[in-house]
Specification:
The protein has 454 residues and is of the alpha+beta class. The protein has 15 helices and eleven strands.
Length: 454
């Protein structure tokens, strides 16, 4: 890596921010035990500068930390990877008898049989603690036999984090602090339970018509699966520890085991994906998505490089992943692609226009309700049926999305974060339809009442 690469990365990130409107991002780059670059760019949601010590959400990158915690307990003899979870965590019960066979390893490589299609983890009422996250599984069933299929499911890692609490006798945050963060010098890192625990620096944004809008994270629970907060400086220490084999934290044999994928999915190990760059370089990586922020980490074991990116925009826009691809290209001597917000802006503009047209048509339909009723005899309610379509779609959009997303779960409000302008139009269309239907029924009802015999 040449001395000019940090400057090249700085220039690239600033070009990216100028092209997309990305408010803030933190980047860490390491190589062979040294920090090459750790800095912040732009602003937080509250307008403070993002620095190398600004805590930001790493979302599902947290799974690598949870997996490490479990592996430490396994080395200390407090859990066994290929024994049933219930042996070490008796409170872990499900309505499906097959759950008794789920092993600790299957939680970490996401082959437990739990899946969004069988347990709607995001759209169900959210827990406040890891104990509550496990308790709500009592009525849940499995989507597959344990060990037979891979399904990325946050609940796996919430159960794993609760296992850490019970096996260690410490709250999960305290365990990570004492056994991972403090030994590595990650002084500004912690883990949290819910969206309510996010500090202001870790709150994020959505893009609407090309402009970043600061919004609170929708209600959700993420400890163990996505609750870690960290900084560029701290993530640099984490990357160096991973590159040097986690000395003092884990044995070389356990590190190899963490990076060994399962039979059902050759690309997912224990909290890490096994992949390649666009140029074919082998990597270990893991991304993370909240609805208002994203993160990504990547290791190149052969060359000793490590990269971490944390962006304060949501999963619908994948800024951290896009920046990771660009920075990786720079490290490998290539040229990153120039980003473009034009497709997103055009889509937003289309739905904004549709929203205005819908409001106009609703106003026209409401004003002309009396004329509409005058041309018809009786109620003729079937003529109002087309107006029910937006109302029904608005009410059923979450299960429809689940089908289209092949079982991936999302609550109604979370869809508004994924597709903001579409959802604004849909709600507007539903309200507009309801208004027109109500106006027409009112006029017809009054006419029928006046003409009916008394």
């Amino acid at each position: 890596m040449s001395a000019s690469v940090p400057a090249t990365v700085d220039a690239y990130v600033e070009r990216y921010r100028a092209a997309t409107g990305l408010p803030g991002v933190a980047v860490a780059i390491t190589k062979e035990g040294k920090v090459i670059h750790a800095t912040g760019y732009g602003k937080t949601a509250t307008g403070e500068p993002v620095t190398a010590d600004t805590p930001m959400a790493v979302a599902s990158v947290s799974k690598s930390f949870t997996a490490l915690a479990v592996m430490q307990l396994a080395e200390n003899g407090k859990v066994t990877l290929d024994q049933p979870v219930r042996r070490f965590l008796p409170e872990f019960t499900m309505a499906d008898p097959r759950a008794a066979k789920i092993t600790v390893r299957q939680l970490l490589n996401q082959t437990s049989g739990m899946a969004d299609s069988a347990f709607h983890e995001k759209s169900l009422p959210q827990p406040d603690t890891l104990q509550g996250a496990v308790a709500r599984l009592r009525t849940a069933r499995l989507a597959a036999d344990p060990g037979t299929a891979f399904s990325y499911h946050n609940t796996n890692y919430q159960v794993a984090a609760r296992l850490v609490e019970v096996a260690s006798g410490q709250p999960f945050a305290a365990y990570l602090a004492a056994n991972i963060f403090e030994p590595l010098g990650m002084r500004h890192s912690t883990t949290i339970n819910t969206d309510r625990d996010l500090p202001d620096t870790a709150r994020g944004h959505l893009y609407v018509l090309g402009q970043a809008v600061a919004l609170p994270e929708p209600t959700g629970f993420g400890n163990g699966s996505g609750g870690v907060l960290s900084t560029a400086n701290d993530m640099a220490r984490w990357l160096i520890a991973q590159d040097t084999g986690l000395p003092g934290l884990l044995s070389p044999q356990a590190v190899r085991e963490m990076r060994t994928p399962s039979k059902p999915n050759k690309e997912y190990a224990l909290g890490w994906y096994i992949g390649k760059t666009e140029r074919g370089t082998p990597v270990l990586e893991h991304g993370g998505d909240l609805f208002t922020s994203t993160a990504h980490q990547l290791l190149m074991p052969d060359s000793g490089y490590g990269i971490a990116v944390m962006a304060n925009t949501g999963m619908a826009f994948s800024d951290a992943h896009a920046l990771m691809i660009g920075i990786t290209a720079i490290i490998e001597g290539g040229t990153p692609q120039s980003p473009s917000m034009q497709p997103l802006v055009l889509t937003d503009a289309l739905f904004a226009l549709l929203t205005l047209v819908t409001i106009g048509l609703a106003a026209r339909g409401t004003v002309r309700a009396r004329r509409w009723a005058a041309r018809r005899k009786g109620w003729q309610l079937w003529r109002l049926a087309p107006y029910l379509v937006p109302i029904v779609l608005c009410a059923t959009i979450a299960p429809i999305h689940r089908i289209l997303a092949r079982g991936r779960d999302a609550a109604w409000v979370q869809l508004a974060y994924l597709y903001p302008t579409f959802m604004v139009w849909l709600v507007t269309a539903a309200v507009a339809s309801l208004t027109v239907v109500a106006a027409r029924l009112w006029v017809v009802g009054r006419r029928q009442w006046r003409t009916s015999p008394r």
